[in-house]
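ok posting inputs for the manganese (II) ion job
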Amino acid sequence: MKKPINKLNEKFIELEKKLLKSQRVLLVVHFNPDTDAFSSAFSLDYYLRNELKKETTILSVDPIDKLSAKLFPKKQVRNTYKLANYNTVMILDREDSYYKLKIDEEIIAKNLKIEIINIDHHPKPPIKEALNLVNIDASATCEIIYNFFKQINYQLSPKPAQYLLNGIFTDTGGFRHNNTSAETLEIVSDLMKKGASIRKINQLVFENKSLNTLKLWSIAFSRAELREKTGMVVSFLTKEDLDKCDASKSDASGIAEVLNTISGSKFSLVLYESKPNVIKASLRSDEHKGIDVSAIAKGFGGGGHKLASGFELHGNLKEINKKWVIE
Ligand SMILES: [Mn+2]
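and the output
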């Protein structure tokens, strides 16, 4: 089969030109950032500092998650910034931070001359005033950044190669999700040749569970139900469960992934209380099941990918007469 020509190639050249012209670059990850977001920021940061000799800041409003804290020098991540100090703002892996931080409004209000770059693999509308490098067929934002580096002939050293692999590995669930394409694996192969290691990231992601995580899983599994009519496997976790097990949001999505492997299931749903009066929902499905969970998530004001989505509800979870309800 002929390989599709990467439609972003021309934009990559434009991106390189813009970066060469900028002296100070702000790298912005999304709210509740994941490893792909940080991997994107740190690989670009490495390139900008070492290759182009630019000044950079990595901005995350939310704290760095447990896994990413082990993968990246977290001291480098800032949670405040002064927009006027930068020539370029790069929005990475999802555009919510751009609007939530009101960067668009500040640029207009202060009449700032700032280039906006948006790099994403989520099906989101482009940012009007930005150079948008969006490819929803990419497994991870890191895959797009890899293609950018390749296009401009930037020779990856082991460190940024590992960063990119970390993002691809986590966004594909260790190459198990359906977003793992032949191209993804070619990229991974090249990253390994450049010194990146699968073993390193695999160990941290899959062989690093705490006893508390498994205790949380056991609570969720004990409450799981398969609804015959819809093929939904659903489970529930209260704030108390999460606190008791010192669990994080990634623990809950891990549960949804396992529940989705139950024979006869069409999709899984894990409802968990992230804080008082806020219930988060994590949805998972698989290509062959023919369910688009992002459509379900959208129905509740959420979003995400076809096979992995989420949404948020107001309320609390209660078990009444052996039935879980939202109050
Ligand atoms: Mn991603």
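notes: The chain has 13 helices and 14 strands. The two ends are 53 Å apart (CA to CA).
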